[in-house]
Amino acid sequence: MQISPVLVKPGGVQSKFSEERMVGKLSTRLLNICVVSFCKARQLDKAESVIIDAVRLGIRPNVVTYNELIVGYCRLSSFESAYSLLQRMREARINPDVVTYNSLISGAARNCLLSKSLDLFEEMLQRGMAPDIWSFNTLMHCFFELGRPEEANQVFRDIILHGLSPCPATFNIMINGLCKNGYTSNALMLFRNLQRHGFVPELITYNILINGLCKVGRLGAARRMLKELSASGYLPNAITYTTVMKCCFRSRRFQQGLEILQEMRHKGYTFDGFADCTVVGALIKGGRIKEATNYMDQMMRNGIKHDLASYNTLMNLYCKVGKLEDAYQLLDEIEEGGLECDEYTHTILIDGLCKAGNIEGAQQHMKHMNVLGLKSHLVASNCVVDGLCKAGQIDNALKMFESMEMRDSFTYSSLVHNLCKARRYHCASKLLLGCINSGMKILRSAQWAVIDGLQYSGFQKEARKLKSKIRLAQMVQC
DNA sequence: ATAGGGTTAG
Fold first, then answer.
1. How far is CA A462 from the centre of its chain?
2. Is strand B less than 7 A from the beta carbon of A470?
3. Which residues make Cβ contacts (< 8 Å) with residue A1, sequence separation at least 6?
4. Residue A347: which nucleotide is closest by CA–C1'?
5. What pLDDT score does A21 carry?
C-alpha cells in the first residue's frame, strides 16, 4: 500500500522513500508532457530521443508514454511503427491497457487497415482485456468512416450485448455516421427518438445535424435546428458558423454568407483561417478570382499561418489563374515547412495541369502520386479522364476508364457529356445505363444529352428504349 | 485518447 506523502512527517525514512517516488512520478509526467508536445508537432524522432534521455536519467516511461507514441505514429500514417510499440512495451515490461488497444484500433482504421482493427479488437479480448465503451465507439466510427453503416449498427448491438451503456459520444458518432453515409433522414429520426427518451443533445450534436442537413440541401430543416440549438441554451460556436456560412455560399447567397463572416469576425472566431478558406474557396468556385486573390493576400497580411488546407486553397488559386510554375514551387515550399502534401494538394495540381492543356504533365503527376502511396486518387483520375476528353483524346479517356478500380457519378457524367459532344450517342447510352444499373446517380444534364442526342440524330426508337430502361432501373432501386 | 467546421473533379 502506498503511503500518501502528505500524511508522512518530514524527515523520516518513509518520507524520503515516498518523496523519491513522487519525484519519479512527477518526472514521468513531465516526460509524457514532452512526448505529447513532440507527437503533436509530428516530430516523432524528438519524442523518441526524449524518452532515451529520460531513461538515462533514471526516469521510467509508463503506459501513457507509449500510448502517446502510438497515437503519434498512427497520425503520421505509420501504423507499422505504432504496432511495433506493442513489442517494445513487452520488452520494457509495461502492460498495454485498453487505451493502448483503442488507439491502435483507430490508428489501423485511419490507415485503411480495417481487418487489422478487427484483429486487434479480437487480440484485446484474448488477452483478457475488457473493451470499454470507447473501444466500441472507435470501432463504430471506423465502420462509418469506411462507408460500412450496417457493420456500424452491428457494433451498437454489441454494446448492448456486452452490457455497456452508450455514452453521449456513442450517439454523436451514430448520428454523424448516418449523415456521412447518406442517411440524413434516419439520423434525424434517431435524434428525435433519443430526445423522447431523455437524451440531452450537446452542442456537437447540433453541429453534426446542421452540417448533415446543409450538405443535402435541407436548408429549412437546418435553420430550424439552429433555432433549436439556441433554444436549448447553447451559443453557436465557430464550427456552427462556418457550417452555415458554407451552406450560404453553396446556395449562392453570397451576401448572407459574408454577413455571417462579419459576425464571426466580431466574435473573434476567424483566427484559425478556417472561415477564410471557406470564403476563398467559394470565391474561386464563383469565378471571382480577383476577389479571391485579394482576400488571400489580406489573410496573409493578417498573419494567419498556413496549414495544409490553406496551402491547398492557395494552390487552387495558383492553378485557377494558370500560374503553374508557382504551383509547382508551392509543392516544395509546403514540404520545406515540414508539412506533407496530401491528396488534395496533388489533385488540385493535376486538375490545374489538365485545365491548362498539359495532359502529359497531369499523367506524370498521377504516377508521382502513386509512388507517394496516395492511392485514393479517384478525384485525380476523374480530372484526367475529363482532361483527356477535352483534349480530343476520348478513346484514351475510355481506356483509362476501363482501367480504373473505382468510378463514381463524376466519372460517368464527364464521359457521357463528352461522348455526346463528339456525337457518339450509342457509346454514351451504354455508359449511362451501366452507371444507373450500378446504383449510381448521374447528372440530369448528362442523361438528357444522350436522350436528346439520340432523338435529334434520327434514333427515336433507341431514345424511347433508353428512357424506359432508365425508368426500370430506377424503379428497381426503390 | 477517441465525435463536429475549412481545401479537389462532371
1. 43
2. no
3. none
4. B8
5. 63
Is the C-beta atom of A99 closer than 7 angstroms to strand B? yes
Residues 2-31 of A with CB under 7 A from strand B: none
A413 touches strand B (CB under 7 A): yes
Q: What is the rounded average pLDDT of the residues A227-235?
A: 94
Are A432 and A398 contacting, i.e. CB atoms less than 8 angstroms apart?
A: no
DSSP collapsed to 3 states, A37-65: HHHHCCCHHHHHHHHHHHHHCCCCCCHHH
Q: What nine digits make up the cell of A63?
A: 503506459
Cα separation of A211 and A176, whole Å? 9
Residue A239 CA distance to nucleotide B2 C1' (Å): 20
Cα separation, A277 vs A399, whole angstroms: 36
Judged by DSSP in three states, A182 sits in coil
Q: Is the CB of A66 under 7 A from strand B?
A: no
Asked whether residue A83's C-beta has any atom of DNA/RNA strand B within 7 A, the reply is no
The strand B neighbours among A residues 341-400, by Cβ under 7 Å, are 342-345, 347-348, 351, 378-380, 382-383, 386
The C-alpha atoms of residue A432 and residue A428 are separated, in whole angstroms, by 6
Residue A13 clears pLDDT 60, i.e. is over it: no
Please give the Cα distance from A337 to A9 (Å, whole number).
Answer: 54
Give the least confident one: A11-25, A125-139, A201-215, A401-415.
A11-25
Q: Which nucleotide is nearest to A214 (CA to C1')?
A: B5
Q: Closest by alpha carbon to A451, among A475, A438, A433, A467?
A: A467
Please write the tens of the pLDDT for every residue from A287-327: 999 999 999 999 888 888 888 999 999 999 999 999 999 99
| Lowest model confidence (mean pLDDT) among A76-85, A131-140, A237-246, A294-303 | A76-85
Distance in angstroms (rounded) separating the CA atoms of residues A469 and A466: 5
Locate all alpha helices (DSSP H) within A147-288, ordered by sequence. 149-161, 168-180, 184-196, 203-215, 219-231, 238-250, 254-267, 274-285
What gap in Å lies between CA A210 and CA A292, rounded to an integer? Answer: 27
Which bases in strand B are touched by protein, i.e. have an atom under 7 Å from a CB? Answer: 1-10
